[in-house]
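for the writeup, i need someone to sanity check this before i put it in the appendix. the sequnce is what the collaborator sent (i think, or maybe the updated version? ugh). structure was predicted straight from it, no edits. if anything looks off just tell me and ill rerun, i have time this weekend
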Amino acid sequence: MLPFGEWRDKLLDAQSSDQRKLILINAFTESLTALGGYKHICETTILRPNRDRPLYSLFYGTQHDTGLEVFRGCQVKALETQATTRAATKVGHAEQKTGQSELFSSFNEMSGNEAQDFLDAEYANACELLLTLAPDEKAPIKYKNLWPQVLARHVVRRPTVNQIAADLRKKGLLVFPGWEAKKRVPQPEYILFRKS
């Protein structure tokens, strides 16, 4: 069992399977952090091939920001592949069950891509978090200390976070005082703060 946290009491109060899953993920993450001393712990859910239910959760722990960056890149690709595979499996399963072929070659064409919907939501959450974590002018932070915090909490790739930061700068919401001419995205040593 999980040795850390108040997860048992929280689990009793949970109202849905999604809440129970989140409680267990947080408890497992807390235990891995305490026992392994990891700086970052990430979870990805592997779904059943033909049903919209989790099969298992995969956890990744790393001491390094680069490990986090590589994992998120792989995770995004894996989610996209999983969505394509699941869509094809669902179509095949439906054809086998009914004996009729589908007009569309995948469920993605009929109802949208589940991975893309998830990644779009994570993108929006990453934008919001980047602004929330950016300090005010009195306590600026180096960009290299900010982007890992966003990747640790949301399923986005580092180039995506870089582009978010650049877009927020263009909108005047983030200030990078030393931004060099012709640079399209922030560099690790750039100082930044949120515009008041």
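Residues 38-194 form one domain. The longest helix spans residues 65-98.
thx in advance!!
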